[in-house]
Design goal:
This protein is of the alpha+beta class. The protein has helices at residues 2-11, 24-30, 35-56, 62-106, 157-174, 181-193, 207-210, 285-288, 300-305, 312-326; strands at 113-114, 117-124, 135-141, 145-153, 213-221, 226-232, 238-241, 244-247, 270-273, 279-283, 335-342.
Length: 356
């Protein structure tokens, strides 16, 4: 651009001046290049303007002198702008590194194999630059089997991340120590409620009443074909069993964690059948409440029913691609999916039949 403007300006009629077009060179360069390249382009543009001045009239010509001064000032400003932009980009890279490290600490990747189970997980952030939000999941190994947690903290931002980290820390600390599943959920409730405002304090508005976490906690023994479930206000897991899909809907669901102080009965678990090759799908409401351009919710159960069945990894790849295509890659909320397949487990007679 500098070369073209310089040549055309030299051969143009005396009343035509194209020098101001050279101002665009350092300005454009500052938008994508570093300060050194911007300064070099600015200096080249100033040299080109000097060449035009000497060729057409003289360097002391008032018009060309003012153009040279203006171009030099613009080049200096563009270089400073480029320096500040480059420094902010370095800070952004550092922040992304910290966010990625925080994600790996808070939301650790699930093992691909644990006991007689194969697992897969997917986390989809609603914001393109986000790494982690209020959705969470974790597993813990016990002497009798495996415990799995999936949850969704109300809200977004740093507060939701802090609440998610607190719940995950409590689960990892107590999952292998609490012998009974209801006792574990009670411990998680205490951990969540400890930092909440006193429920029902209307002088502080509704924030205290609206701070809660939905969660589903599963216990899958190694030695029998069952899965125990306590659901605290979370979307019910889906069971893909022998080509059929059903919801694991508990008879006595509990309120979300943080609101169970209003319960009149203790936590109670319910058992379901899970045999070899069956897959339990856990998810957050960011999946089922995702909408397409027509405003229709994503039909997760229907999509799961059409799946051919090739293991948890293949299932989550299928659902992830299908979900993003359904919403045109524009999620309204964070979404998490966990698929659990039982393999190599005893075919014992379960204590309760498969729900219809």
């Amino acid at each position: 651009m500098i070369a073209v403007v310089t040549v055309v300006d030299i051969v143009a009629p005396p009343e035509v001046h194209l020098g101001p077009f050279l101002d665009a060179a350092p300005a454009i360069t500052a938008s994508f290049a570093g300060p050194r390249m911007t300064a070099l382009v600015g200096a080249t543009a100033v040299l080109a303007q000097v060449t035009v001045a000497v060729t057409r009239t003289s360097l002391t010509d008032l018009n060309h002198t003012l153009q040279i001064i203006a171009l030099a000032l613009i080049s200096v400003l563009a270089t400073l702008f480029s320096y500040r932009r480059e420094r902010r980009e370095r800070q952004l890279v550092q922040l992304r590194s910290v966010a990625q490290a925080a994600q790996e600490v808070v939301l650790r990747p699930l093992p691909r194999r644990i006991g007689p189970l194969r697992l897969a997980s997917v986390y989809l952030a609603a914001e393109a630059e986000a790494q982690i939000g209020g959705d969470l999941y974790a597993t813990a190994r016990t002497t009798q089997g495996t415990r799995v947690l999936i949850g969704d903290v109300r809200g977004k931002g740093l507060e939701a991340i802090g609440d998610a980290a607190r719940l995950l820390g409590a689960f990892r600390a107590a999952a292998h120590r609490q012998p009974e599943l209801p006792a574990l959920v009670a411990f998680l409730e205490d951990a969540v409620s400890s930092d909440l405002d006193t429920p029902g304090d209307w002088t502080d508005g509704m924030d205290g009443l609206e701070a809660f976490t939905t969660a589903a906690i599963l216990e899958i023994p190694d030695q029998n074909a069952t899965v125990s479930l306590i659901n605290c206000g979370h979307p019910p897991p889906l069971l893909w069993a022998r080509g059929k899909v059903c919801e694991l809907e508990v008879r006595q669901p509990a309120p979300p964690l943080g609101l169970t102080g209003y319960m009149t009965t203790p936590f109670s678990k319910q058992e379901f059948t899970i045999l070899d090759g069956d897959i339990v799908l856990l998810y957050t409401d960011g999946v089922t409440e995702a909408r397409n351009s027509k405003g229709d919710f994503y039909p997760l159960a229907e999509r799961l029913a059409t799946w051919a069945g090739q293991g948890p990894d293949a299932l989550l790849r299928y659902l992830r691609n299908d979900l993003l295509a359904y919403v045109d890659r524009n999620l309204g909320d964070d979404a998490a999916l966990v698929a659990i397949e039982r393999i190599g487990a005893p075919h014992a007679v379960p204590p309760s039949p498969l729900p219809q």
